[in-house]
Design a protein that fits this description.
The chain has 320 residues and is an alpha+beta fold. The protein folds into 2 domains: 3-106, Phosphorylase Kinase, domain 1 (2-Layer Sandwich), CATH 3.30.200.20; 113-318, Transferase(Phosphotransferase) domain 1 (Transferase(Phosphotransferase), domain 1, Orthogonal Bundle), CATH 1.10.510. The protein has 11 helices and 8 strands. It has helices at residues 67-80, 113-118, 127-131, 135-153, 180-185, 196-200, 204-217, 234-250, 260-269, 284-293, 305-318; strands at residues 24-25, 28-37, 40-47, 53-58, 91-97, 100-106, 166-169, 188-191. The strands form 2 sheets. A 6-stranded antiparallel sheet has the order 1-2-3-4-6-5, with helices on one face. The chain has a two-stranded antiparallel sheet with strand order 7-8. A hairpin with a 2-residue loop joins strand 5 and strand 6. Helix 4 runs antiparallel to helix 8 (234-250), helix 4 (135-153) runs antiparallel to helix 11 (305-318) and helix 10 (284-293) packs antiparallel against helix 11 (305-318). The longest helix has 19 residues, at 135-153. The radius of gyration is 20 Å and the shape is globular. The protein starts with 23 loop residues before the first strand and ends with a helix.
Length: 320
């Protein structure tokens, strides 16, 4: 046996988990880091049992701190394993190896919505591009609303919908694509990390991730999420999706401000600017749908993702 194979996997702090790349964790060979989140490091990995490529999230070695945290993690994973929808990133399994808990999910060949948006949007060069500029945002809205309809029916609320949590699956070589329209024309938007809230509920890691989330993703919070202990249901996901779709259209979230206090005040009190002010060719119906998704009181929003999908479907019929 090669001497290196006998070396134990080191117990690393959360900010050094990237050093695990190239090692074997349980029955996974860890490749390059795909992303670093509030709840660990995600690697492109090879499952040596199934021989498929997966996205493997390795949680910090400090998790779980006790048996109650471990039991909640196991139960959440069991509840989600049967979920299967084209617009949800599939969870394959979870476990523990070499002192680390892990989650194996579908490897999506394509960037996150956040990565695409950071590339910027090319200036339209003709009327046709201007007319169609809203369609990528519409496709994202439809795809993720389908994911929410399915997950809400199975009693899963995401609670963390941001451009980072939406992956756009591609077919073939996508290296030459330059805009969101290029990516979404033949891509499928998939909602990621659906299991994380339930899996980490009540844990110390959840509290750490929440603080990081407030620092980096506050602009996508629903009003009720800004109150901490307020009840949060499926309508909160609808609000956050509205903020994401609005950001795709406008280049920034609807309530973003220079400080956390101002952002929270805007989320709670300020009405969003109508997207039609920047996109006069945006269908009025799409504009009104977005504004309803972003209503402050939950009872003024769409009451379910199914209801939202029915409204979005009217746009496709009007533009056939």
């Amino acid at each position: 046996m090669h001497p290196a194979a006998e070396l134990p996997i080191p117990r690393l702090p959360a900010d050094r988990l990237n050093e695990l790349a190239g090692s074997t964790l349980g029955h996974f060979t860890l490749g390059p880091v795909l992303g670093e989140g509030h709840t660990g490091m995600v690697f492109k990995a090879k499952d040596l049992k199934s021989l498929r490529t997966v996205a493997l999230r390795v949680l910090p070695s400090e998790f779980p701190k006790n048996d109650a945290e471990r039991q909640r993690f196991v139960q959440a994973v069991k509840e989600m394993l049967h979920l299967d929808h084209v617009n949800l990133v599939k969870l394959y399994g979870a476990g523990k190896a070499d002192g680390y808990h892990w989650l194996a999910t579908e490897f999506v060949e394509g960037p996150s919505l956040s990565q695409i948006m950071k590339q910027g949007r090319p200036t339209p060069v003709n009327g046709e591009e201007t007319i169609r500029a809203w369609e990528p945002a519409y496709r994202v809205a439809v795809h993720i609303a389908r994911a929410l309809d399915y997950s809400h029916q199975h009693h899963f609320i995401h609670r963390n919908i941001t451009p980072t949590d939406i992956l756009v699956a591609q077919q073939g070589d996508y290296s030459q694509k330059a805009s969101l329209s290029d990516y979404t024309a033949d891509g499928v938007a998939k909602l990621n990390d659906l299991v994380m809230f339930k899996a980490l509920e009540g844990s110390g890691l959840r509290q750490v991730s929440l603080r990081a989330k407030i620092a980096t993703e506050l602009a996508y919070f629903s009003p009720e999420q800004t109150y901490g202990g307020a009840p949060v249901d499926a309508r909160s996901d609808i609000f956050s999706l509205g903020s994401v779709v609005y950001a795709v259209l406008m280049g920034r979230p609807p309530f973003e401000a220079p400080s956390q206090a101002e952002t929270i005040r805007n989320i709670r009190e300020e009405p969003p600017t109508s997207p039609r002010k920047l996109h006069p060719l945006l269908p009025r119906l799409f504009d009104s749908i977005l504004l309803k998704m972003l209503a402050k009181p939950p009872e003024h929003r769409y009451q379910s993702a199914k209801e939202l999908l029915a409204a979005l479907d009217q746009i496709s019929h009007h533009n056939e």
